[in-house]
Amino acid sequence: MDKNLYDLMDWAAIEEIAYSECDRPKKILGSHKVENGFLVQTFIPHAKSVELLIDGNKNPVAMECADEVGFFACLVGRSKEFKYQFIVTYDNDSVQTIYDPYSFDSIYTEEDLSKFEAGINYEIYEKMGAKPMTLSGVEGVNFSVWAPEAMRVSVVGDFNLWDGRRHQMNKLGDFGVYELFIPGLKAGDLYKFEIKTMKGEPMLKADPYAFYSELRPNTASIVADISGFEWSDEDWMKNRDVFQSTETDKSPAMNIYELHLGSWIRKEMQYGEDGEEVNGSVFYNYREIAPKLATYVKKMNYTHIELMPIMEHPLDGSWGYQVTGYYSPTSRYGTPDDFMYFMNYMHKKNIGVILDWVPAHFPRDLHGLGCFDGSHVYEHPDPRRGSHPHWGTLIYNYARPQVSNFLIANALFWAEKYHVDGIRMDAVASMLYLDYGKNAGEWLPNIYGGNENLDAIEFLKHLNSIYKKKHPSSLLIAEESTAWPKITGDLKDGGLGFDYKWNMGWMNDFLEFMKLDPYFRSGDYNGLTFSLLYAYSENFILVLSHDEVVHGKATLAGKMPGATQEEKFNNLRVAYGFMMTHPGKKLLFMGQEFGQMNEWNEDVSLEWDLLEYENHKKMQRYSKALNKLYLDYPALYKLDYNPDGFEWINCTSKDETIVVFLRKTQKEEDTLVVVCNFTPVVYEREIGVPYKGTYTEIFNSDDKKFGGSGVGNKRAKKSVKKKVDGRENSLKIKVPQMAMVVFKWDK
């Protein structure tokens, strides 16, 4: 080797690179100004020879092999910087011409990194991860990842034979962020990060910020460009603040159809020529399912859909709640562009889309976030704070700014890039309480000795404040199962700032009431009426969700008492009727609208063939009509969160198990009288009414077309001046068995 060249080289640093233990390879590799010109060095394992081709020159310069493992160098006697490529001949005699990855500047500014370190870089996903771009006229992909305790990080993929010695990334200052631009790569290329821990152990990790991921069971990230989709949902987005207003006296109709995309409908399994199953062939693509789902949702008169998590997850049986790819729509159903098409299609049909989102915990899969760089990067280091012993998952360290930044930016990402209309946060209770699901000795109290997770509370407030500032018409919904106060309270008033909270208390009490034999329901009459004591303490959504139709709990129809299916469906109709007329927005899980009898199974389609049977067809017809009633009458939704929108007429008929109440708006003429009978007995009875006038039955769940007996009040009823239920005016009506009946008032 030339002595001048030999003397210029830092042999200790070269050894560090050769052993792939360098966190700042750019200080050695690439072109560096020296006294007599520029020292150009490269490390390409499996290279037999490397030539330097300077732009504008026809003849390449042979580089000297400084180390047989693949380290090459040469001295270029120029006074000014120059653009160059390497001509590499590999040990299999293949030849490749490449630009030097270490000749490109960072895309990060000091401000980017400082804001990320402080937890306030809300668009960090624009730079972190894998970004196709053109730098200095060269096309390629810029990679970056946060791994603060790593010894070394490399990008690996098919493009470098998954060899972690190649493409070692450069650490940016003391921010823990590693970065490298690799020329020639493009959207569609597979990659992972190979991280060598401080113990010298290499690990393969998927990109936490990847926009696209491989179909399970494979776990690589995929380079994706999500900037090219042409949206056409501007009408929906412009008017979304009306469709989803959270103003107390302008509350819109919101009737949500909760579903799991992979089992709403499925295809037949396809088999390859070798007889093996074609992985993923049972799933409909986002583009295929969009028109089918939209047609059904509109036909059934729902306003929104809520998708169980579509973020990438390795295990079908987790239903998406154990996420490994927070920025990746799952590849089970297609590409990021396909999911954008899905969202755009729903909006053009005036259907809102809410996504389930899981900031509470994450799985321990080896390619995921757990022990990301050999240290506790995303999870709390103390297992009493950092793990769920019963779920087997890890808990985020919300006190770490970069972790909260990852999650906050992710929520904003779905609203910004995919136009989502709401985020439903899963398992919020597990975030709020340090002892959630833990026995004595399995948790640590906070600094005040309490069980409140102060870091998680601050995280939720931070997230909700920023989210509503940037996307005020997109909704924030909490699945929170305790009596924690002010979940939907204003942040300025000590609340958490959610728009809505799932009413788990109502769900549990009401289902326990409905499961009782009608003969015994009078003994639990309080379970029917109790929810109205706290109905206005939060902005509630009444939910009958997926959690209620799995794990041996039976479907909603299956929970109902009755010796025959007809009796069960009678119970189910009055249950749905009471739910739809009770204050609060509504959510029902797929399949329950037509009375599916088998529990939900994520591995099979809903039992659509049940609609060949009259009972199920009539139940679906009932659900459709009930949803239409809800949409047509503002009294059923406009004052959901104002006590003026509800008034008891009778909540003391315990023996008959009947309730009578009003739903109202600011206009008297909108008033509805609702009567619910939870026994299989027909009653002739008098009920008090608010005004003198005529009352017309506009809905009856016991109608024959719904599978009922046909008992009802076919003619309009005139009130009489007779005091009943503490009212000056009253009606005499027929109350059908096991039914919900609605009357509309007219002067």
TrEMBL record:
GO molecular function: 1,4-alpha-glucan branching enzyme activity; cation binding; hydrolase activity, hydrolyzing O-glycosyl compounds
Catalysis performed (reactions): Transfers a segment of a (1->4)-alpha-D-glucan chain to a primary hydroxy group in a similar glucan chain
EC primary class: transferase
Keyword Translocase: no
GO BP, sorted A to Z: glycogen biosynthetic process
EC numbers on record: 2.4.1.18
CDD domains recorded: AmyAc_Glg_BE, E_set_GBE_prok_N
Pathway: Glycan biosynthesis; glycogen biosynthesis
Active site, per annotation: 426 (nucleophile), 479 (proton donor)
One term under GO cellular component: cytosol
Iron listed as a keyword: no
Ranges where the Glycosyl hydrolase family 13 catalytic domain occurs: 283-630
Keywords tagged on the record: Carbohydrate metabolism, Glycogen biosynthesis, Glycogen metabolism, Glycosyltransferase, Transferase
Pfam families noted in UniProt: Alpha-amylase, Alpha-amylase_C, CBM_48, GlgB_N
Stored HAMAP family: GlgB
Oligomer status and interactors: Monomer.
Family, per entry: Belongs to the glycosyl hydrolase 13 family. GlgB subfamily.
Role according to the record: Catalyzes the formation of the alpha-1,6-glucosidic linkages in glycogen by scission of a 1,4-alpha-linked oligosaccharide from growing alpha-1,4-glucan chains and the subsequent attachment of the oligosaccharide to the alpha-1,6 position.
Name of the featured protein: 1,4-alpha-glucan branching enzyme GlgB
Organism: Lachnoanaerobaculum orale
